[in-house]
Amino acid sequence: MTIINDGIGRGNSAKVDSDNRLAVDAGVRPISAIKALSGDCYVSSMAATQPVTATGGSIMFLHNTSSTKSIVIDKVVVSCSAAQLTYKSSVGTSLGSVADADHAQVTNTNTASAKTPGVTAYAWNGSNNGIGGLSGGSIVNLVELAAGAWDLDADDTLVIAPGGTFNVALDNDSGGTNNCAVHVRFYEITL
């Protein structure tokens, strides 16, 4: 059996079987899974749940600080303890002096990789109504959520250019306590 390698060291290969037919291992994988294998997929999460107020505000903020790579928002997961939580994501939010936030950890989804992204992430620390020092932006998604965990898949269509931003804001319309947590998964690409 002849083995044909892709020549770039990724281990992709094709084989010519005994009937002289080309055989490949083919399947459909999400781009994020492929990026995870190469060490270019990351997650950023809040350190703890926070009680969202009726005023609401920014909960998670990502700033692409790279000058060469874009980030693609793959998935946002929001969990909430009560119904009537409004989820709003936006791009192009301006970053001033950050207040009421902590640096959020950004973790490579491939634990064997030492790569780190050119991204600074902030998560609301529970003070006031949300992350302070942010302004503007264009809304790309607005959804009213029921209680539970919600996978708001971005379908790999939201590309944040170098210097760009992605913001997640929540607003509690339940009239009671509504604890939440936010998790964002993204990967890097070079356009």
Order of helices and strands: EEEHEEEEEEEEEEEEEE
Helical fraction equals under 10%
Whole-number mean pLDDT: 89
- Biggest beta-sheet profile: 6 strands, antiparallel
Indicate the overall shape: elongated
Task: Please state the oligomeric state of the protein chains shown.
Answer: single chain
Strand content: over 45%
Rounded to an integer in angstroms, the radius of gyration calculated over CA atoms is 20 Å
Judged by helices, strands and strand pairing, the structural class is mainly beta
Q: List the uncertain runs.
A: none
Please tell me the total number of domains.
1
Tally of DSSP β-strands: 17
- For the termini, the CA-CA separation is 38 Å
Number of helices: 1
Looking at this protein, list some descriptive labels.
mainly beta, single chain, elongated, 191 residues, six-stranded antiparallel sheet
Describe the structure.
The protein is mainly β and 191 residues long. It has one domain (31-189). 4% of the residues lie in helices and 55% in strands. The chain contains 1 helix and 17 strands. The protein has one helix at 31-37; strands at 2-5, 13-16, 22-24, 41-45, 50-51, 57-64, 70-80, 85-91, 94-99, 101-103, 106-108, 119-124, 132-135, 138-145, 148-160, 165-172, 179-189. The strands form 4 sheets. Strands 4, 5, 7, 11, 15 and 17 form a 6-stranded antiparallel β-sheet that branches. A hairpin with a 5-residue loop joins β2 (13-16) and β3. The longest helix is centred in the N-terminal third of the chain and has 7 residues, at 31-37. The protein starts with a strand and ends with a strand. The mean pLDDT is 89.
